[in-house]
Design brief:
homodimer, 247 residues, alpha+beta, Jelly Rolls, Arc Repressor Mutant, subunit A, 4-stranded antiparallel beta sheet, 10 strands, disordered N terminus, DNA-binding
DNA sequence: CGTTCCCTTGACACCGATCAACTCTGGTGG
DNA sequence: CCACCAGAGTTGATCGGTGTCAAGGGAACG
């Protein structure tokens, strides 16, 4: 069996990510690959999980992007997280009665369906792996808090720059950045629904970031031309991503 | 020993909260009381944990309010969570190198210091209690997401009304609400730093909520005069607090 | 090869920030 | 017991960032 490779030939992104923090044994790696075998393809713009569902599997992103979202009573949408390869959609949700939000695929996506029982077995016998999964959960929480800071205390220009800095680090952590270029499969409306803005204003801020020579964007791809400049512009401090774990 | 009572004679708020969701055995309850015995008093406006700390204990709020906060480079402060009796400050943080944010006491506070080892022992042998603690963690995450929704997609008036609805439910869950009145020990500036606003504008919105007969506020206390009206005004839907667990 | 998203740009409106006083309250010291 | 003071709350005037509305352009797709 062509282990440890996704259909596209890339290594399992969860392994790549966890090894930024922990040292996994060959056995741990095999267990992750094995658990990720049962996959499903989801079309772009379809729900992976809907509000109200009670998922009986854990969903792990293997390829593509997805977003957590919530619709408020007046019909507006707020995106509360981006999920990229290596991210769990609902690591813990099995103990709750129902999903209090939905998750939809931003691109065609490959998702592993891991039975809850498998997760239990995985973690019961592998303390190092369990610790690494915990670390990933804590990083996800740190990201949530940083989004609150972003929405509460930065202007539109800084918010968008900050998002780009964050996704750059996260994509790098799963080996999906080359020459400061990575896939950013978001419409301006989706960015707006993430940052508490309108698509029109996002457009203006992207133009400014482009005009100032900080980024190049187009065709679902983002190139960061001046990483230091972008970080300074946004007040980005990567410590909340806790990527320094291993070294 | 006068078990299960705080110095003020109230039951342990963590027990009160968890029993909203789970059925704990007498033994589980005793274990929580026992673990909460080593307490410390913190003055108002002092850090309980500072950014950069690596706490070697888990901190559990027993009395008073605290807030997670982050200072952005330009000096502005964003509060990312309120911690009330029964809330853990840092249930999981021991595996990280350093705190990426601080927590300060909003009022004089009583905090239990629980060694990490005690937490490990508690959870190792008590599946029902472990499950209940997990549930509490998931609720905390749901609260984080709802704050993102609040900041991103509601105006100032709705945001403040929503915060009041949330704290009403959470305070009720630990038995600290009487006749829709509860302690809300926040200055208008602190509310502003929570909601991404200025103190001046918070003041105007509070006046409006008062003028419309929805609330009465003053002297660190909030009375909700028209709960339905406040919920409608803010688009509040309590399902993210998953308080329906047990029944 | 037309239809449909998505992106782009301009003009104008409005929510919430900023700046500036003034009031009220509780605590402190003479 | 009162005078003072600092912090919090209150209110008005003005400014600016972002939303809204409107129109057109470009690229992907059937």
């Amino acid at each position: 069996m062509a282990t440890q490779r996704s259909p596209e030939g890339r290594p399992n992104p969860l392994i790549t990510k966890l090894e930024k923090y922990a040292t996994l044994s060959d056995d741990d790696r095999d267990a992750i690959v094995e658990a990720s075998r049962n996959t499903r393809e989801i079309d772009a713009n379809r729900d992976i999980i809907s509000e109200g569902d009670r998922p009986d599997h854990v969903h792990l992103m293997l390829d593509g992007w997805a977003a957590r979202y919530k619709i408020v009573p007046d019909g507006a949408r707020q995106i509360t997280a981006y999920l990229i390869p290596g991210d769990f959609c609902d690591l813990h949700v099995t103990i709750l009665k129902r999903m209090d939000h939905g998750i939809f695929a931003l691109t065609p996506a490959t998702v592993a369906y891991i039975p809850h029982e498998t997760m239990r077995r995985l973690t019961a016998s592998r303390p190092e792996l369990t610790r690494a999964l915990w670390w990933a959960t804590l990083v996800d929480e740190g990201v949530l808090r940083s989004w609150i800071v972003n929405l509460g205390r930065r202007d539109a220009y800084q918010r968008i720059a900050h998002l780009m800095c964050e996704m750059h680090v996260r994509m790098k952590n799963v080996g999906l950045v080359e020459d400061d270029t990575f896939s950013l499969p978001l419409t301006q409306e989706e960015i707006a629904d993430t940052m508490g803005l309108t698509a029109v204003h996002v457009n203006r801020m992207l133009r400014r970031l482009r005009d100032e020579g900080l980024i190049e964007i187009g065709g679902q791809k983002l190139t960061i031309l001046d990483l230091g400049g972008l970080q300074r512009a946004s007040g980005f401090d990567p410590s909340y991503l806790h990527a320094e774990g291993k070294t």
